[in-house]
Amino acid sequence: MNERSTQVLVVGGGPAGSTTAALIAREGFAVTLAERASFPRYHIGESLLPSCLRVFDVLGIREKMEAHGFQRKDGAYFDWGGEPWDFEFGTPSRPLYGFQVIRSEFDQLLLDHARTQGVEVHENTEVKTVAMVDGRPRSARLVDEDGVTREISFEILVDASGRTGLMANHYLRQRRFHEAFRNVALWAYWTDAKRLPIGPYGAIATCSIPTGWMWAIPLHDGTLSSGLVLHRTTFQEMRKYATLEEIYRDAVTSCRVVAGLTDEARLTTPLRVETDYSYVAERFSGPGYYLVGDAACFLDPLLSTGVHLATFSGMVAAAAVSSTLRGEVSDLESTEFYDASYRRAYLRMLVVVSAFYQTHTGRDAYFKKAQQLTRRDYSDANLAQAFVKIMSGLEDLRDIEGDPSQDLLPKLTDMYREHYSFVRKRDQWATMSLEDINKGIARSRLVADVQEDFSLTPETAVNGLYVAAEPSLGLRRLGHA
Ligand code: FAD
Description:
- The chain is α+β, with helices and mostly antiparallel strands.
- Helix content is 39%, strand content 24%.
- Strands 5, 6, 14, 15, 16, 17, 18 and 19 form an eight-stranded mixed β-sheet that branches. The protein has a six-stranded mixed β-sheet with strand order 8-3-2-12-22-21, with helices on both faces. A four-stranded mixed β-sheet has the order 1-11-10-9.
- The termini are far apart.
- Bound molecules: flavin-adenine dinucleotide.
């Protein structure tokens, strides 16, 4: 058995692992990344939010991403509760877009970029065990495809192992599932499907159906990714009398948008299934370790937040680790900053997704259940309390006192409903009163505020610290430029 050491060991080479590893290596530290699979490897999670592009800029990979030919995505189209509507991410004066990506190609670009930044990448290499000493990970046992075992010691462990959750599941034992989003997803790829004839260019279509909801994502190789999301109990009930293919095909038939896009198309891949994928760890970091991306938490894919959270948390973790290794902040300051920053970003998205479910006014059983469960999830976890605390800038929420779980979701839901109704009436803006236009704009700003990330500016500092990318990536203290 070979033995060796590194400063930072990163477990997993998905978007979270590659981002974190590349940014720490660029700061001059020794980084080793172990990835179980051989890339390119398949992965779900194809629709990216525009916020990912900000991280690509910091990584210095934006040009490569732009040149690759991924489908550009200018917004989203919803057929939600029988009401079609859409929104563009940007405005004519401030264009904003995301991408629809084939993840095997996207993840390969990110991992190759990490190599160019000096990361020592080992594919086909699984991290089997981690040795903890006094609650701090000190070394790990790696096994490669030939069964050769290696022991590696390190100063910091970054767990980017995705749903596997190496630390959360095996060492910390603290992953909690969200009952509201205890869902099952079934998806496949279509050839010769039509492109959405309405809505923003390259949009994802998200459509509610009586049993759940469906997505349709156009990819740059001409295929269409389309999936179905159901609550676990509904899925289990249906499985008693139907095959996976029957469940999926019935859903397509009941979804006017996906049925329209695929009526002359062929299903050219087997169905893929993912279950129980919404969870959160009680701690996102601790002495000498950081959980990034899905290794820490994962939210319902409804608003395509997964890769955004993976790359955002990767960037924040890289800044925290780099500052710790340079001795600018203590280990404790760094891990507490990281936990609070990522948790807040995650909580915000959780609240947005929950409020989004609440805006569904139809009578469909899936949404009724999701609404009840999200409310319960709120009171259970005191999420609303935490959310109000971190959202002190929002005037509309200031008057919430006592038990905010009673008030928060209805208020946010109203806010979203009004915002979407304003966006939907775009073709009537020219004839609206100035007062209504101003109200609509103010409401949209509020919605944008809710979705804004923490920790990246002095104004959004957490525990007196924030992330700065220049002149080096790291944490800065408020008041010290
Ligand atoms: P991953 O991408 O899962 O990477 C983890 C890596 O770790 C893997 O390559 C794995 O092989 C490796 N690994 C695991 N264990 C070990 C080990 N012990 N040793 C070494 N390597 C290991 N997100 C979006 O942004 N948009 C979407 O449209 C979207 N749709 C989704 C639809 C569904 C049904 C689901 C379930 C998720 C969706 N997501 C979406 C979420 C998205 O897939 C994830 O959030 C994202 O991939 C997280 O990136 P990551 O780097 O944290 O984890």
